[in-house]
Amino acid sequence: MQALRLARPRASLRPFARSIAASASGTHATASPASSASSSVIPLSNVEAQWEQLSHDEQLTVHQQLEELQKKDWKTLSIDEKKAAYYVAFGPHGPRAPVNPPGTTMKVLLGTLAGVAAAGAVFIAVRSFAPPPPKSISKEWEEASNERALEQKMNPISGISSEGYSGTGFVTHK
């Protein structure tokens, strides 16, 4: 019942302000908003299907009806009343309404695929207009760089000219 009270939308104060203003001006309202709302009974069977079509006042009336029903023993409630209470408290409406309408997943998937395809097309276009790689990026050039480093005794402590060196040196191609 606490969850139902928390989930219940608050009634606006305008109807009460109007009734107060009407009584202050000298005209008396025949019925208060609370008594007129409780006089119309909305059937609780299949509340899930009718909830979106109900006005805010009718939804408030359903909340009040369910609060009164839940004050009784839960064993005496019908299945429809229990379903209505659960739907009103925890149903997919208000803050728990789905954020994305159905079909959004397919749109996001197709949009992502289109973005990846466009990026691939741009990559291929840029690569087709690019100049050839420089001649220094070849296995032969790197092996020649290793020989030159050995001739010059480059990095004799831990590098290519050190004793027992077993690394590949400047060669990065396989």
Automatic annotation (TrEMBL):
<keyword id="KW-0472">Membrane</keyword>
<keyword id="KW-0496">Mitochondrion</keyword>
<comment type="pathway">
    <text>Energy metabolism; oxidative phosphorylation.</text>
</comment>
<protein>
    <recommendedName>
        <fullName>Cytochrome c oxidase subunit IV</fullName>
    </recommendedName>
</protein>
<feature type="transmembrane region" description="Helical">
    <location>
        <begin position="108"/>
        <end position="130"/>
    </location>
</feature>
<dbReference type="GO" id="GO:0005743">
    <property type="term" value="C:mitochondrial inner membrane"/>
</dbReference>
<dbReference type="InterPro" id="IPR036639">
    <property type="entry name" value="Cyt_c_oxidase_su4_sf"/>
</dbReference>
<keyword id="KW-1133">Transmembrane helix</keyword>
<dbReference type="GO" id="GO:0045277">
    <property type="term" value="C:respiratory chain complex IV"/>
</dbReference>
<dbReference type="GO" id="GO:0006123">
    <property type="term" value="P:mitochondrial electron transport, cytochrome c to oxygen"/>
</dbReference>
<dbReference type="InterPro" id="IPR004203">
    <property type="entry name" value="Cyt_c_oxidase_su4_fam"/>
</dbReference>
<dbReference type="Pfam" id="PF02936">
    <property type="entry name" value="COX4"/>
</dbReference>
<keyword id="KW-0809">Transit peptide</keyword>
<keyword id="KW-0999">Mitochondrion inner membrane</keyword>
<keyword id="KW-0560">Oxidoreductase</keyword>
<dbReference type="GO" id="GO:0016491">
    <property type="term" value="F:oxidoreductase activity"/>
</dbReference>
<keyword id="KW-0812">Transmembrane</keyword>
<comment type="similarity">
    <text>Belongs to the cytochrome c oxidase IV family.</text>
</comment>
